[in-house]
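Researcher: Please generate the 3D structure of the following complex. Treat every line as part of one assembly.
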Amino acid sequence: MVRIDFNRLRFLVIDDNAHMRRILRTLLHGFGTREVYEAEDGAAGLEAFTHYSPDIVITDWAMPIFDGLELTQMIRQPGANANPYVPIIMLTGHSEKKRVIAARDAGITEFLAKPISAKALYQRILNIVVNPRSFIKTKTYFGPDRRRNVSPNYAGPERRKGGKAEVIKQPPLLDKAKALA
Amino acid sequence: MKPPSTPPAVTTFADHDVIVPPNPLKKAVVRASPGEAAEPDPVARAEQALFELSGDFSRWMESECERLDAARRAAAQGFTDKTRDELFRAAHDIKGEAATFGFPLIEPVAASLCRLIEHSPDLARVPLTLIDQHVDGVIAIVHRNARGNTERKARELARRLSQVTEEFLAHENRHRPGYLDEADAPKLVP
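Model: Done. Output below.
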C-alpha cells in the first residue's frame, strides 16, 4: 500500500482568482501539506517558481500578464531555470479538446478541469508522485512523454524515428547554471 | 527542495531524446508496513476542510457577481481587448466555481456567456441585451438560490439563453464552416 507524505511536498499555486487560491490551499492543507505558496498572475508565478523551487506547480490557464500556457512554456525551457522538469497541473474551466491538446503540447503534466474536487486533485498528485513520466525533447517539444500508454490497437505509422540509442549522461542543469554564473 | 542533483539519463534517438530526470518526489512516497495503522483518508480530510470553508461561499459568489456586473458595464462602453478579457474571465471564473460554491444552476448560464464572447468573430455585433440577460440571469439565480421553485425557472432560463446564443453564433460563424464543430468537439477530460 502506497501513500503520499504531503508534508514533504512544496506546492506553488498560481491563479488570479483569490477564491480559487483559497480553495486550493485548503485542499492541499487538508491533504497534509504545509508549504503552499501563491501567485496571482503568470509573471508573479514565474518569479515565485524561481524563488521557492516548488515540487509541484498548479496553475490556472486564463490569467493576466501571461497565462498558464505561456508560463508552462517558459518553465519548460531546458537550461533556462533550475528545474524544467517540475510537474505542472493545469487547473482550468477550459476542457475543450483543442485546449487540452494545446496544454499538453505546451508541456503540462496533468490536466484538471473545474469544478475542482478533492478526489480529482489527489489522484493527479498521486499519479505525478508515484508514476513519473520520462521527458521527450524534439525540435519542437520539450515536456513529459505525451504517450502515456502503448496502444496495441494503433495502426498508423511510427512518427518517432528510432535508430540505435545512445545513452548520454548530462551534467545537472544547476551545475550548468553555476558554471555560467 | 533543491533541484535535481544527479544528472538525468538521456537516450538519444534519430529525432528525439528520451530523458529520465531524477525523481525528487519519491521522498514523499511512503509504503505502509503490514499491520501498520491506516492513515486517515487524505481526501476525506480535504473534503472536511472544504466543508468548513463553505460558510464563506455565498459571500464569495456575491463578490464574483459584482465583478461580473462591473465587467458588463465596462464592456457596454465599448469592447476593447481589456474589457473583453475582463468580462470573459469574470464569466469563466463563475463557470468554474459555480458547483464548488454550491450554485450549480448558474454554471450553464455562465458557460453560455463564455461561448458568446469566445466564439463571436466580431464582438461589436453581439447585442448588449444578450450579454445583459446572461449577467442578470446569473445574478438572479444567485440571489434566489435559497428560495423555492428556483431550479425549474433557472433551468428554463439557461436553456433559452443557450438556445439564443447558439443561434447567434451559428449565424455569425456562417462564413467559417466547421469552426463551431471544432469548438464543440467532445471534451477529453471529465
